[in-house]
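Slide 14.
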Amino acid sequence: GGGAAASAPEVQHNASDAQVNGDAVIWLTNINVDTAMLRFREFLRGFRAPREEDDEVDEDDDEEEGFYISQLRRAFAAGVGSVNINAEHLGTWADTADFYEQLERFPQEMVPVMDHVVNEEYEALFGAEALANSPRLQVRVFNLKDVSPMRQLNPEHIDTLIAVKGMVVRTSPTMPDLKQALFRCCVCSYEDEVLIDRGRINEPVQCESCSTRNCMELVHNRCMFTDKQLVRIQEAPEEMPEGETPATCTVFAFDDLVDAVRPGDRVEVTGVYRAVGKRSNPKQRVLGSVYSTYIDAIHFQKDGHHDDAEMIGEEDDGATTEEDDAMAVERADGGSNDGDWRGAEG
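Slide 15: predicted structure.
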C-alpha cells in the first residue's frame, strides 16, 4: 500500500544506522533480534502486576516471581497452548517502550521473537519433555494503546498490529489450512516435507534422490493442517455515523481462536492488518490492482472481559454464505496464513 511504501526509506535508514554501529538487524526494520529477545526475557521475568491486579495472582504464589512467569505456570497447569501478553504492560515497562513500538510496526517479525522467548522460558521452567508433549506456546497480545475505528483503516495500517472493536455478525465453519506439505517423487517415492513460507508452499522442482525434474506430487493425507475460521465483524451501532451503512471487516482466526466468538458477541480484535490482491480468474495467478483487506487475529477480547484469562468460545449458530466461504478459500490461496510468520519453528 501507499502508506507502507512511504515509510520504507525511514526504516531502511534506521537499519543502515544499526549496521554501521555493528548490530545486525532484520532487513527493512530496525529490529535487532538478540536485543529484542533480551528485553522481552527481562520483561517476562521482572514485570510485577500492579496493585489493582493483585486479585488475579494466587495468594500462594512467590511474591518475588514475575507476573508472566506465574502465567506460564498457569498455562502448564491448565494445559493451554497460549499466553496472553497485556500490551499496556509492555508500554509502561521502562525497558520495553521501544519494544512496544517495534511490535506495532513490525508484528510479523516481533511476534515470532516473543513466541521463541516464551517457549524457552517454558522449557527452562518445566523441562524439554513438557514442551515436547504439548503444542508450542503462542503469544496473544491484547489491550493496545489505540483502538482504530473500522472505517478509518488505511493503507498505512497494512502489515501493522491493530485493534478494532465491533460486533460479530457471521462466522464460517472450521476450515483446514495447510501448514506443512509432504511431496512424494513419482519415480523413486522419495518424500520431502516443506513448511509454509509467507503463505506459500514451494514445491520442490527436482527430486533430491533421483534428480528427476518436475516429478513431485502432493500427498494430501500426509500433510499437516491447522484450524482456520472466517469471522465477519461490523462496527457497533453507536459508533456508526447517522445515515451511513455500517462498515464491516473480515477476520481470520486460527488454532485455539477458532470458535472463540459467535454471532452477537461484541469483541475487540487484535491482529495484523493485511492486504491481498484479487484474482480476476481463480485458475490464474494474475492479480488485479484492487486489493482486499482482512485481519489475521492474534487475540479476541469480549466486551467486559479485561482479565488475562484465555477466552473460551461456545459453538456458534451462525454460518457464512457460500460466497463468503469461496472468498475465504481464495484468500487462503492468496497468502492468508497465520503459520507463515509465527508457526514455522514448530
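Speaker note: The first helix runs from residue 2 to 20.
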